[in-house]
Amino acid sequence: MKPTKQKRCGACKTLFIPTRPLQAACGLQCSIAIAQDREKLKRLRAAHTKADRQQNRKDKQAFNERDRSWWIKKAQYEFNKWIRTRDAGLPCISCNVTTGQFHASHYRSIGAAPEIRFSEINVHRGCAQCNSYKSGNIGEYRLGLIKKIGIEQVEWLEGPHEPKHYTIDQLREIRDKYKSLSKEM
Fold first, then answer.
1. What long-range pairs does 177-183 form, CB within 8 A, spacing at least 24?
2. Is 37 helix (H, G, I), strand (E, B) or coil?
3. Residue 153 CA to chain centroid, in angstroms?
4. What pTM value is reported for the model?
5. Strand positions, DSSP E, 2-157
6. Which residues contact 136 (CB under 8 A, 6 or more apart)?
7. Which DSSP category does 153 fall into?
8. Every domain of the chain and the residues it spans
């Protein structure tokens, strides 16, 4: 066996000749002290990272609350949830299917007519198949919509509308309104 070099103990800092590779301490007491120090350091790091995550979450929330697009998403989520609750039990407006997964399906899409994204007559219960894979199944959607709300309102939906630029306060009100309506139903 080769003679090994002396090492400095990680706990008491005295020189010793290691008997195993990667040995960091000169004896049992020093090994225990090193292990305890590592455990303390591990706990401190865990507490520190948890505090960092909480602070990052608070910072992100504060940033998001100043962001208009974040409020649009929150308002749209509550609006769509209310539509699904309002139309629960009704069949898909396009294909009359009564089972499966259902969405809040917009007749005029948000991209095509953002000014009526929160119009209650523009959004109805649609099955996932029609809404996602058939782009709303618009031909059948229109027929179902005429039966449900009448031709005059469908023509109003298809007509031009004034652009709306929602403020954060308006979006907060929309979110709160539909959140409370969902709870009431």
1. 178/75, 178/78, 178/79, 178/81, 178/82, 179/78, 179/81, 179/82, 181/82, 181/85, 182/78, 182/81, 182/82, 182/85
2. helix
3. 34
4. 0.67
5. 7-8, 15-16, 102-106, 123-127
6. 94, 105, 106, 107, 109, 126, 130
7. H
8. 25-64, 68-184
CA distance 105 to 125: 6
For residue 183, give the amino acid letter. Answer: K
pLDDT tens for the 185 residues of the chain, in order:
565 688 899 889 989 988 888 888 898 899 898 889 889 888 888 877 877 888 888 888 777 777 888 899 999 999 999 999 999 999 999 999 999 999 999 999 999 999 999 999 999 999 999 999 998 899 999 999 999 999 999 999 999 999 999 999 999 999 999 999 999 88
CA separation, residue 84 to residues 110, 113, 169 (Å): 17, 21, 24
Between CA 123 and CA 75 the distance in angstroms is 14
Rounded CA-CA distance 148/125 in Å is 12
Let me know: does 118 contact 87? Beta carbons within 8 Å. Answer: no
Listed in sequence order, the residues at least 6 apart from 100 whose beta carbon sits closer than 8 Å to its beta carbon are 127, 128, 129
CA-nearest of 160, 82, 168, 167 to 120 is 82
